[in-house]
Amino acid sequence: MDPSSIDSLTDDIMTDEEGTPLIMTGPTQVSRLKGLLKMISSQCSKNNNNNLRSYDYDFMTLIESQSILKKKRKRTRRNRSHSPATTIPYYQRRSFDDMATQHRYVCFFVIQGNTSNFYSNHTLSLRRRLSQEYHDVMTTFLVSLDSGSSLGRGGDEDDDEENTNETVDNFCQGTGFCYLPERKIPLLRSMLNISQVPSIVILNVTTGQKLSDEAMLAMEWNDSHTVINAWQKGQSGLTCMQKMMAILTFQGNSSPCTIQ
User: Each residue of 5-39: pLDDT tens digit?
Assistant: First the structure.
């Protein structure tokens, strides 16, 4: 394997433009987040929401839970309480800054929240790909929109929170995702400029800036080695042919002259 490929997939210790390490472990860690990541971190702290659920990655649990979620697409609400057994800790509590500084890239996986564990095939496909191919090279934050069905409508907030937690547990177990509650960070949707679900937004931790709008397409159409190496070079991750196909199918935002 090309050494550059190995470097791109094992780059757990990041540096800024001057070569200064971004990660400092331990309870006295000082945040070096920038741009959008710094704004989101500030919102987490402001709303006392900096103690997030971080789910361990486990291949067998992922495959089993993926199968159950697909079956629930067919049965909708039946067997709602059933979830696969797991031999690993369900989740740990981690701060946003701690999770965001683990790798060079951060992914926000935005889905439509619900309490029936019913998800589209596209959502489940992205769940599997993000978990299997990117769990060890990129931190993924799950953002579930409008998951609080009773909030703001006279419902019981405690009951709604319990239902939401159960739904998130079912979706995130075995994935390696970290759950970021959108309803406790009101500006998150506008910060990420979310206009449809499911969506994937990738940020570069070094700069705090958003990558190409074609990042999700690149991840769906190419393997993780190809995509990560392209991002390292400042490219979108799509080939010339894929870029043209994205434009022709109204999935891309760039003109043919900017293909990279």
Answer: 444 444 444 554 445 444 433 333 445 789 999 99
Q: Of all residues in the chain, what percent carry a pLDDT higher than 70?
A: 69
**How far, CA to CA in Å, does 245 sit from each of 203, 216, 219?**
24, 14, 15
Kindly tell me if the per-residue pLDDT of 235 is higher than 60.
yes
Mean pLDDT of the chain: 77
Q: Is the pLDDT higher at 108 or at 148?
A: 108
Question: What structural domains does the chain harbor?
Answer: 30-210 (3.40.30), 212-260 (no CATH)
Q: Give the 3-state DSSP-derived string for the chain, with helices as H, strands as E and coil as C.
A: CCHHHHHHHCCCCCECCCCCECCCCCCCCCCCCCHHHHHHHHHHHHCCCCCEEECCECHHHHHHHHHHHHHHHHHCCCCCCCCCCCCCCCCEEECHHHHHCCCCEEEEEEEECCCCCCCCHHHHHHHHHHHHHHCCCEEEEEEEECCCCCCCCCCCHHHHHHHHHHHHHHHHCEECCEECCHHHCCCHHHHHCCCCCCEEEEEECCCCEECCCCHHHHHHHCCHHHHHHHHHCCCCCCCHHHHHHHHHCCCCCCCHHHCC
Query: Rounded CA gap, 51 and 53, in Å?
Result: 7
Between 1 and 248, the more confident residue is 248
